[in-house]
């Protein structure tokens, strides 16, 4: 990453502190879904965890919010197509994921019993497999992907934490992709840096909570 240029639009930056993500003022004002889409479109990353954290570090993304329902499939699509050498597919697939994720409403985890981050992994897989309601093996795999993610998410007690469940969903997806699609995405160790901003953080009960 060249810190002299915005990571979203590649505009030259005039000032930047070491703590800032290299983003120009116009890009800092983007609505969350626009921010995620543009960030992913310009990324060459094959690491969905690192990509998610870069996006979540932006001021555009709240500590909690339905933008995470798009963020999860977006970073998976980006990392997947970069990994298999088909970057030209990313923008079209991102727009598809964005449209589908709009149907996963705020508060879905508590009111519908299915976390939007987990559903996001199913959105990702349905897109890359071109699955439809009439598909056979693809239909089954998408259900398995979503079920695997939701089971991992539900292994923690509440309350909601959009960072924790996003991490859970992404880790489940990375393992599933490796096992069923034979595509190995990068999977770094995760240490949460958002806990101080989350009033509902379960702290040491969360596997991502930094041990002190």
Write structural notes for this entry.
The protein contains 9 helices and no strands. By secondary structure, it is mainly α. 38% of the residues are buried. Helix 2 runs antiparallel to helix 5, helix 5 crosses helix 7 and helix 7 runs antiparallel to helix 8.
Residue stretches low in confidence (pLDDT < 50, at least 5 long) are: none
Mean pLDDT: 92
N-to-C CA distance = 30 Å
Percent strand equals under 5%
Q: Report the order of strands and helices.
A: HHHHHHHHH
Helix content: 40-55%
How many strand segments?
A: 0
What's the number of helices? 9
Largest beta-sheet details: none
- Estimated radius of gyration: 17 Å
The rough form would be described as globular
Helices and strands: which structural class?
A: mainly alpha
Attribute tags:
212 residues; mainly alpha; 51% helix; 0% strand; globular
How is this structure best summarized?
By secondary structure, this protein is mostly helical.
Note the topology.
Elements: H1 25-28, H2 32-41, H3 48-56, H4 67-83, H5 90-101, H6 108-112, H7 116-128, H8 137-154, H9 162-181
Helix pairs in contact: 2-4, 2-5, 3-4, 4-5, 4-7, 4-9, 5-7, 7-8, 7-9, 8-9
């Amino acid at each position: 990453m060249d810190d002299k240029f915005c990571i979203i639009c590649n505009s030259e930056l005039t000032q930047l502190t070491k703590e800032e993500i290299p983003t120009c003022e116009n890009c800092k004002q983007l609505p969350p879904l626009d921010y995620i889409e543009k960030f992913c479109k310009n990324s060459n990353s094959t690491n969905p965890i690192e990509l998610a954290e870069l996006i979540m570090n932006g001021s555009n993304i709240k500590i909690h919010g339905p933008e995470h329902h798009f963020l999860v499939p977006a970073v998976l699509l980006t990392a997947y197509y970069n990994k298999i050498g088909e970057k030209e597919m990313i923008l079209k697939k991102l727009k598809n994921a964005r449209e589908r994720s709009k149907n996963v409403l705020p508060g879905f985890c508590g009111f519908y019993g299915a976390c939007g981050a987990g559903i996001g992994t199913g959105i990702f897989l349905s897109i890359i497999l071109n699955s439809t309601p009439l598909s056979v093996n693809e239909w089954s795999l998408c259900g398995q992907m979503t079920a695997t993610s939701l089971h991992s998410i539900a292994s923690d007690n509440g309350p909601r934490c959009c960072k924790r469940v996003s991490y859970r969903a992404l880790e489940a997806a990375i393992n599933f992709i490796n096992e069923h699609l034979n595509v190995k995405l990068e999977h770094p160790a995760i240490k949460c840096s958002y806990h101080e901003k989350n009033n509902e953080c379960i702290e040491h009960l969360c596997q991502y909570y930094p041990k002190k």
